[in-house]
What we know:
Blueprint: E1 63-69, E2 73-79, H1 87-102, E3 107-112, E4 117-122, E5 132-135, H2 138-142
Antiparallel strand pairs: 1-2, 1-5, 3-4
Amino acid sequence: MALPVKKIYVDSAFKESSSTSNSNCSIALRESFYFPDEGTVMMLDDVSIPHSWFSVEVGINDRLFFAIENDGFSWYAATLTSQNYDGASLAAEIVTQMNAVFGAALMEGTDDATNNVISMSLVEPYLSDNHTLGFLTALDLSRGYLVT
């Protein structure tokens, strides 16, 4: 005769106070479960791991450093809003914040969801005035490029 199936739901929101974090925690069950010594099988049936962090976080990855060249380089920094983004909303946020640095519509951006590519470009009249847009890497920043 088979015993009934019993399910136990575990949520780190109910962890014991001695737990060190939500991912390294102890949870006290409300009731004890007793199983026969022989033939007892336990299995993990389902796991749900919620998304619990932003794709852009303040002080971690919220600054975008870029340069515009036209008879010399001018370096700039835009600060992105801390939140979750998909490709289209990230492209829109980058355009919004880069344009905010100038107080004018200087940039446009597109998201190619099929290829996971966001493209940024200058708009007229900046494009026809031979301006060039570039993004600074961590190596560029370590070399001490001045950012205004």
